[in-house]
Amino acid sequence: MQEETLIGQIVEGLIAEPCLLVLDNMETVIPAEGKSVYGQFLSRWLGNGDNSKILLTSREQPVFSANLQPRCHWLVLKGLAEADAIRLVTEDYELTGTQKELAHFVNRMYRHPLLMQLVSSWMRDDFGVGVCVTEAENLGLDLFTVEGYHRDMETCVREVIAASLARLSARLGDILKRLSVLRGIFDLGLAQGLTAEVTEAELRYLARLSLLQEFPPEPLKGKPRRFQFLPLISMVVQQQADSELLRSAHQAALDYFLAHLPAPPWESLEDLTAYLEGFYHAGELGEWQFAFDILNEERGGEGKNKSVEEFLDLQGFYRQRAHLYEQVIAGTQREQDCHRKSLNRLGNCYISLGQYEKAIALYQRCHDMSEKIGDRQGVAISLGNLGNCYISLGQYEKAIAHFQQHHDMSEKIGDRQGVASSLCGLGNCYISLGQHEKAITHHQQYHDISEEIGYRQGVANSLGNLGICYKNLGQYEKAITHHQRCHDISKEIGDRQETANSLGNLGISYNYLGQYEKAISHHQQHHDISEEIGFREGVARSLHNIGETLLNLENYSEAETKIQESLVISQEINYKSLIADSFKALAAIAHQTNQPQLALTHCQAALTLSQELGIPLVKDCEELLAKIQDDLEAV
Where are the alpha helices (DSSP H) in 268-317? Predict the structure, then answer.
């Protein structure tokens, strides 16, 4: 349903305003009409859209129903411009010939860059520098007889790669096949980890044949000469390799990366390259529990540096993290410990990405599996995670029931962190329901337990939640003190999502104190971090908060723009409480700008939703509705 809604919104946008939408490499996601969300979208748009254009690139032409085909115009993508193609073979590879000979040479290869590089490097290697392009006929390969375009061009490239491999000595062929399991850029040290006898001269020779890409040393950055495969070349090489050779190469690569894992602290995703490559090679060997452990094993740091999992989570790499756990789930059996735990981890990613229904499905699967095998902690954690989803969906009573079960089970098994997390969830429910004293009691207990067990993320989070309670009680200075402490700890431990939350909460407090410029500055920082890490709920909240501040400044036009942007995201992720807030704010704007009928529509939408959720906004909506109705009666 969420995908259908999103498709409808995109189609409406393309109809309303003239746009150019570019979709690249579509053959990977549209195997046939209607079998993917992209296919459904394109079919819907082709049936409705007249105002916009879509530029789609694909190796395979998508199939649409006969009535939609006339709206599609297919163009064949060509290679480099002829002058650029000639410049490539003459300047980069020093081939010679008349203008006519050169043009004939590059056009017979459709000016395809990779094919020209492979053939030109082969000619230079066989015939020497300055060879005339007419010598191509003497390569001993029926290179130019492959007919057709695009898919056949790839076939042609494959033929040249296969012929190039056949020309290599057995030793170099073996080296290339072993190295083909490497995904990224590698240096001589890594190459020798997979095949000990390889030399830099041999790697450079393979690069001269265009079977590898070569990157020169960067002494100022401390980087030696490096090499990399193009994906098509590594794929063809692996297809020609023996499965046992590839398996031993993956094992050698795994051993190398495990021996070169950088200890924390880490500052960027690049610092985790060895861990992530180790994960990849363990997965290729089918050792998924080991791959899971690479991500989750504690490495001696704290906060974001505690483990790779903590770094990816706290630094906001939600999509990258989701991709890792999707692989573990796909590669393992239901009974495996890493399978169940990955369901929870993946669910956490989906919550951060605003995909609550997907998260619920994963948490429920983990709950049921854990219950079946008697894993009480797994059951408890899943209950708490389900509670977090229901909060975001505005189902507070359901959330409270799940958090209470989480609390009771965690207490029985002696899981103090689980008890703390459940108290946090309960406190958040009471905040949403306007029961602030009850919320303070729960968040204070959450804070005390977190401090007692050294759970600094919990300490920061509880301070932020207490700040929200004090703000709701009108104690703005006290709220600011708590949010500032939350911000400082979150930044120190590398929790970017909570850092963003604390900035937003500080902005709200400054807004109530009338310090509007300061409020906007904090909300903008909250927005930028959330957008950078893909925290859609945070992006929606920050846009809304900026809009509310602009409303206080009586800048109604900009306020409406920000709140509308927020509303679009909130509706996409079904963030109900913020949807209600946005409709109420839009009603206030319409009321202030003498649009009583529009104000009435927005206010009724806000009131209906807030009544459904049972949140304190009901009272504000009722008061605004009375004012709007008075205006309508006066007209």
Answer: 273-284, 288-296, 308-314
Q: Which two structure tokens, joined as six digits, stand for 60?
A: 């395979």
The reported pTM is 0.78
Q: Among 272-276, 454-458, 504-508, 533-537, where is mean pLDDT lowest?
A: 533-537
Q: Which residues of 57-94 are buried (b: 16+ CB within 10 A; e: fewer)?
A: ebeeebebeeeeeeeeeeeeeebbeeeebbebbbeebe
Do 450 and 420 form a contact (C-beta atoms < 8 A)? yes
Predicted pLDDT of residue 154: 66
In order, the DSSP letters of 406-418 are: HHHHHHHHT-HHH
Amino acid letter, residue 430: Y
The amino acid present at 583, given as its one-letter code, is F
Q: Which residue in this structure is represented by tokens 């706290």?
A: 314
Give the model's pLDDT for residue 561: 95
Q: What is the token pair recorded at 218?
A: 């960067």
Confidence tier at 290 by pLDDT (50, 70, 90): very high
Side chain identity at 351, as an amino acid letter? I
Show the DSSP H helices in 67-222 as ranges: 82-87, 99-108, 113-127, 151-167, 170-179, 188-194, 200-208
pLDDT at position 192 over 90:
yes
Round to whole Å and give the CA distance between 518 and 500.
Answer: 15
Dihedral of alpha carbons 489, 495, 500, 505, sign: negative
| Inter-residue contact 283 to 331 (CB < 8 Å) | yes
pLDDT digits (tens, 9 = 90+) for 474-504: 999 999 999 999 999 999 999 999 999 999 9
| Those residues with Cβ within 8 angstroms of residue 248's Cβ, 6 or more apart along the chain or in another chain | 178
> Which residue shows structure tokens 């044949």?
209
Weakest-pLDDT range from 108-112, 244-248, 321-325, 584-588: 108-112
Q: Which residue has the tokens 């189902």?
A: 395
With b meaning 16 or more CB within 10 Å and e meaning fewer, what string describes 140-156? ebebeeeeeebeebbeb
The tokens of 188 are what? 């001589």
- The pLDDT of 269-297, averaged and rounded, is 97
405 and 383 Cβ atoms separated by less than 8 Å: yes
Q: Which helix (H) or strand (E) holds 562?
A: helix 556-573
Contact 523, 503 (CB under 8 A): yes
Return the structure tokens found at 123: 């000619």
Per-residue pLDDT at 229 exceeds 60 = yes
How many C-beta atoms lie closer than 10 Å to residue 127's C-beta?
A: 15
Q: What CA–CA distances, in Å, run from 474 to 311, 426, 442?
A: 36, 22, 19
Distance, in Å, from the CA atom of 563 to the CA atom of 549, rounded to the nearest integer, reads 11
Q: Is residue 579 within 8 Å of 542, Cβ to Cβ?
A: no
pLDDT of 452: 97
pLDDT at 39 over 80: no
